[in-house]
Design a protein that fits this description.
Helices cover about 50% and strands about 15% of the residues. By secondary structure, it is of the alpha+beta class. The chain has one domain (about 1-115). The chain is rod-shaped. The termini are far apart.
C-alpha cells in the first residue's frame, strides 16, 4: 500500500513538472512572436514613411491616404512602379502592419503611424 501511494505522488510530480515546462515554453514562444512582430513593424514603418516621402517628392504633396501608395504608379526609367511594395494590404488595398491593423496617415504633415494599440507613437 505504501509503494502504491508513493508511486502516485511521483506520477503527480512528473505531470506537474511537464505542465510547468509546457507553460514556460508557451510563454517564451508568445513573447518571441511579439518581438518578431515589433521588429517587423519597425521595418514596415520605415518602408511606409519612405513611400510617403517618395510620393511627396514626385507629386509635391502628401498622399490623401495610404491606399494611394499601393495603387497609384509612377514612372521610373521605363517601368511603372507602385510607391509601396512588400507590405501586406487589406481587402481595400490599405497597407496593414504585422499586427493586422491599418497604418494611419496625417495627410497634412505626411506622418505615418501604426493604428495598433500601444504602437501608435512609434
Amino acid at each position: 500500500m505504501e509503494k502504491s501511494k508513493r508511486r502516485k505522488i511521483e506520477i503527480l510530480i512528473v505531470v506537474g513538472l511537464v505542465v510547468v515546462g509546457a507553460v514556460v515554453i508557451g510563454l517564451r514562444s508568445s513573447s518571441s512572436t511579439q518581438l518578431a512582430q515589433e521588429q517587423a513593424l519597425m521595418t514596415e514603418l520605415k518602408a511606409v514613411r519612405m513611400a510617403v516621402q517618395l510620393y511627396d517628392a514626385m507629386n509635391k504633396n502628401f498622399p490623401a491616404n495610404l491606399k494611394v501608395l499601393t495603387t497609384e504608379k509612377y514612372l521610373m526609367g521605363n517601368k511603372k512602379r507602385t510607391y509601396l511594395t512588400g507590405i501586406q494590404v487589406d481587402k481595400e488595398n490599405y497597407p496593414i502592419d504585422s499586427f493586422g491593423s491599418r497604418f494611419q496617415l496625417d495627410p497634412k504633415t505626411g506622418h505615418a503611424s501604426s493604428a495598433t494599440k500601444g504602437y501608435e507613437s512609434w
